[in-house]
Write a structure and sequence with these properties.
- The radius of gyration is 27 Å and the shape is globular.
- By secondary structure, the chain is mainly alpha-helical.
- Helix 2 crosses helix 3, helix 5 packs parallel to helix 7 and helix 12 crosses helix 13.
Length: 376
């Protein structure tokens, strides 16, 4: 799978000879000198700046510096299909990869990922998002894959869920997941509900069961999302990513704009993901809708999707179009901003932009420019 490239065995023997000479020289150096050579390698071979290289090398313990095979490592990465930029990205986020034993450690683990259908930038992304390379192949990675196969029924399903959540293979899944499944079953969740949660947000079953139980309690008893509501699972997905202090800070922002707890609960029952926006976005969005447009909390709570659309790329440009059409009396029927914002881009342009293009050339050009930026 890894091969030797077009020069075959000759290239391999040359690389082996170079590595032998490198190790013979490298092993005699003090740790500080080894660190300097590591920095030089990252600068000259991978395009790091000196500052980036020093910062990256500082993340590595001195005891690891003796297990250093840079040119063999580059051969492996190139044969994996990674380019120089991708290798730099990988080493920046996971400098320990420089000190993996190539044949005993790195290659077998990369092979596992390739068998799951990962290659190129997907491989880099996967390794960046997990500590996969530091986990034991036979003690954690393969047992976890076997467990996922038992849980999901096929390796295609396993591959799909692992690509979605790389951290799955950084955990002992036979130990971590079953307590969460038991908890959800005891709370009345069906097997299908649990599979839905796992397939949509697999990392949620990696949490401590006490944490998951708290989230279920919040969804049902604090925000009053009915268990039978299709929003209940979405509520758990939204809440599980928020610790109590972060959640309270976000709720306080809504309260500072005059929202009652019943308004907040109505919004969460309508669209729980409103709570997953950053604090800055929540504040900016409420200022626009309430201070500039004059909407009341009760209206926004019942039209919660308005709070999740992008203000800069969707809401504000469409609001300017709608305001112009009303001012010029180009449309006579009563239209709400919610209706306009909720329509698809194709529907919006067909109904509210293209028929009036000649009447608003500057606004049309600006709107099209914004849409082009959104797609790029």
């Amino acid at each position: 799978m890894f091969g030797f490239g077009s020069n075959g065995a000759k290239k391999h023997l040359s690389s082996m000879f170079y590595t032998f000479r490198f190790h013979l020289f490298y092993s005699t150096l003090p740790a500080t000198s080894r660190a300097d050579i590591l920095v030089d390698f990252m600068v000259n071979s991978l395009g790091f700046s000196t500052h980036e290289a020093i910062s990256t090398s500082d993340k590595v313990t001195r005891s690891r510096l003796r297990n250093y095979e840079p040119h063999l490592l580059l051969d492996v990465f190139h044969n994996m299909g990674l380019n120089k930029s991708q290798i730099k990205t990988l080493i920046s986020s996971s400098p320990e990869v420089l000190f993996c034993h190539i044949d005993k450690n790195l290659k077998p683990k990369i092979k596992v990922l390739q068998q799951l259908g990962l290659s190129g930038s997907d491989l880099v992304t996967f390794i960046k998002k997990s500590d996969f390379l530091t986990r034991g192949l036979h003690t954690t990675i393969k047992p976890s894959l076997d467990y996922l196969k038992e849980l999901l029924g096929s390796y295609d399903s396993v591959a799909m869920v692992v690509k979605k959540e790389p951290r799955l293979l950084s955990n002992n899944l036979r130990k971590v997941i079953p307590p969460n499944i038991s908890l959800l079953q005891n709370l009345g969740f069906s097997r299908m509900d649990i599979e839905t949660i796992f397939n949509r947000r697999p990392r949620y079953l990696l949490n401590n069961p006490v944490w998951l139980e708290r989230v279920v309690h919040q969804a049902e008893n604090i925000f009053h999302i009915p268990r039978e509501s299709r929003m209940f699972l979405h509520g758990i997905e939204a809440l599980v990513s928020l610790d109590e202090s972060k959640l309270e800070r976000k709720l306080d922002i809504f309260r500072s704009f005059g929202w009652s707890d019943s308004d907040i609960c109505a919004m969460v029952r309508k669209l729980p993901y409103c709570l997953t926006s950053s604090e800055a976005k929540i504040s900016f969005t409420l200022k626009f809708f309430m201070n500039e447009l004059g909407y009341e909390p009760s209206y926004l709570a019942s039209h919660a999707p308005l709070l999740k659309y992008s203000l800069e790329k969707r809401v504000m440009p469409r609001n300017e179009i709608l305001k112009f059409l009303k001012e010029k009396q180009l449309i006579t029927r009563k239209l709400s901003l919610y209706t306009v914002v909720a329509s698809t881009e194709l529907e919006f342009q067909k109904k509210y932009v293209l028929p009036f293009r000649e009447k608003m050339p500057d606004l049309y050009d600006l709107y099209i420019k914004v849409q082009a930026q959104e797609k790029s």
